[in-house]
Amino acid sequence: MSGQKIRIVKKNDEFSMEYQVGDIFEIDSTWYGGVNVTSRTGIPLSLDKEEYEPWEEEAAGEREVDRYSYELGVMDVFCEMTAAGVKKLAMSHPCDTRQERNSYLPEVKRLCEKYGVKYYPEDEAFITELFPAQANRGKYNFLFYYTDDVLEEYLRLKEEQRRLQETGGYTKQKSYETACAFGRLLSYSQEGIKRLIKKAAEADRKE
Predict the structure, then answer these.
(1) Strand, helix or coil at 68?
(2) How does residue 33 score in pLDDT terms, banded at 50, 70 and 90?
(3) In angstroms, rounded to a whole number, what is the distance separating the alpha carbons of residues 83 and 115?
(4) Which of 72, 73, 85, 192 could be cross-linked to 15 through a Cys-Cys bond (beta carbons 3.0 to 4.6 Å apart)?
(5) Other Cβ atoms closer than 10 A to 30
(6) Which residues sit opposite 65 in a β-bridge?
């Protein structure tokens, strides 16, 4: 079954932003309750059978959404969630180059004006246990937030991590605490944070 494609028809994990209804994934492997796929950001996803249906491009007769439009759609959702107070901080998907990230800038400005939120172009990804390091190191993205204190807290966390790494104080426990603090800033529940940390560790072990 590996290599076949499925389309998401239902979300059982309400905390995950790695997949949405309508997304199409290629199957990596199967398990007794469903299939395993990989999100666009490199995070492995285990999907239950009730969450997806088989998908064939020819049979569907649909035009696959291009990446640029897809990423803008994701950012639109994140801006709306930030404006509504659902998320304190939101991040766009990582881009491989600064040029690629900046190609979205005109539309990002439009979205932020539309929803009344702010953006911050991140040129140095915040690497923690929350997300796979291999999918984020050396990447570029946008941060979305409503109030300046949120960005200040994010930058403070990054600076604290840097200081501890330089002084040898970035222990395993401190690394975990930093990931949890980052997750809370992104408005994930504690259970959601634990799941993301576990998935990120599994993804990094495969590298």
Answers:
(1) helix
(2) confident
(3) 6
(4) 192
(5) 13
(6) none
Structure tokens at 113: 């004006």
Residue 56: how many other CB atoms lie within 10 Å: 10
CA dihedral over 12, 14, 16, 20, signed as positive or negative: positive
Q: Which amino acid is at 7?
A: R
pLDDT digits (tens, 9 = 90+) for 85-128: 999 999 999 999 999 999 999 999 999 999 999 999 999 999 99
Token pair for 180: 């949890």
Summarised one tens digit per residue, pLDDT across range 47-60 is 988 888 888 765 55
Residue at 52: amino acid letter: Y
pLDDT at position 3, please? 65
* Token output for 64: 């696959």
Can you name the residues that pair with 8 across neighbouring β-strands?
52
- State which amino acid sits at residue 129: E
Q: Please, are residues 15 and 188 in contact by the beta-carbon 8 Å criterion?
A: yes
Length of the chain: 207
The vertex-41 CA angle with 35 and 42, nearest 5°, equals 50
Segment holding 25, helix H or strand E: strand 24-26
CA distance 94 to 41: 7
Per-residue confidence (pLDDT) for residue 110, from 0 to 100: 96
Taking the C-alpha atoms of residue 63 and residue 56, their distance in angstroms, rounded to an integer, is 12
